[in-house]
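Morning - pyridoxal-5'-phosphate inputs below, output right after.
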Amino acid sequence: MLQMASGIGRLSLESAFAVLGRAAELEAEGRDVINLGIGQPDFKTPEHVVEAAVQALRDGHHGYTAAEGIPALREAVSADLARRLGLEVDPGQVLIVPGGKMTIGFAVLMFAEPGAEILYPDPGFPIYRSMIDYSGAKAVPIPHTEANAFAFSAEEVLARITPKTRLIILNSPSNPTGGVTPKAEMDKLAAGLLEHPQVAVLSDEIYSQMLYDGAAHVSLLSYPELRERVILLDGWSKTYAMTGWRLGYGVWPEALIERARCLAVNFHSCVNASAQYAGIAALTGPQEPVRQMVAAFEERRGVTVAALNELPGVSCLMPGGAFYAFPNITGTGWSDKDLQKALLEEAGVALIAGRDFGALGEGFLRVSYANSRENIRLAVARMAEFLASHR
Ligand SMILES: Cc1ncc(COP(=O)(O)O)c(C=O)c1O
């Protein structure tokens, strides 16, 4: 009998990938499925970014790079943070990794172990909880409720800190809810954290450029009093439609960067060299493709929320960011999981049950509106027909 380590059994999967797989199976059987399940832009990576990767391969960038990433890319990240958010970041504190996810894993590995407590968003990106469970630390949910527009409040976070708390994971704009924590709450949180100097924060800001109604992003890294303990997670996947390239970065406090680099050496050595050159082109080239994509998402957000609110028993808040709507479906009489399954199998609409993002997501669905307006309208029309015929 093989004897696996106990933590391995506690890792969980992301249901977005399971739904993607099932949708592909149905399509292979000839069924027509509209995918509002997976969290990725339906845009192509901008052409000049693709060209930069091709050129890098032609130029012979085929080997390992420095584990932390090529210097020009780390400098480009630093310049981008200065341009967008007015932040001053030493390129030496930037760690290039294969996708945003890696920074989550590294932060949890750095702080979590049995006896420690880690705070994480509920509902939230499932990998937070999975990695905390793997580590054996206690996972303490921070509620993101409909009553609070699905964002975290400073009070809810601060109230959960104990002497055992080592790391707080925060995510604004949020996956799966699209909730955005306003600056006033961030200010309160930063002030409150001064009383807990032993606590580190992983701020997942991967949707930082997907904000609507003219809102400006508030980075937790912009609070000088927290600089020594905030790990910033961002990357290229969402902003530049580069999910399959596997490219992301973390900005680590000076005291942690060397250990983070050590994790990188142990796990992946370095990121694919040509993808890193693509990353430079994305950050230093024209930003118009990003603006166009975000403008398209903003328009689709309106279409999606209006259409969902027409469905009987469904109510949906207007999300402030990311590309997800999180409708409350309790009035339909369906459970979120049953409705997710039935909509995929019977109506050809792929979306994700709220509970797959945490216990507090029960009664909601995550609807990704990274799809064409026509498909969104058709998907909601299919939902309407389905609900009407299953009363
Ligand atoms: C909140 C959040 N963080 C991190 C990630 C991971 O991004 P990547 O695909 O770059 O690993 C995602 C992807 O869906 C996400 O939604």
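Note: The chain has a mean pLDDT of 96.

O.
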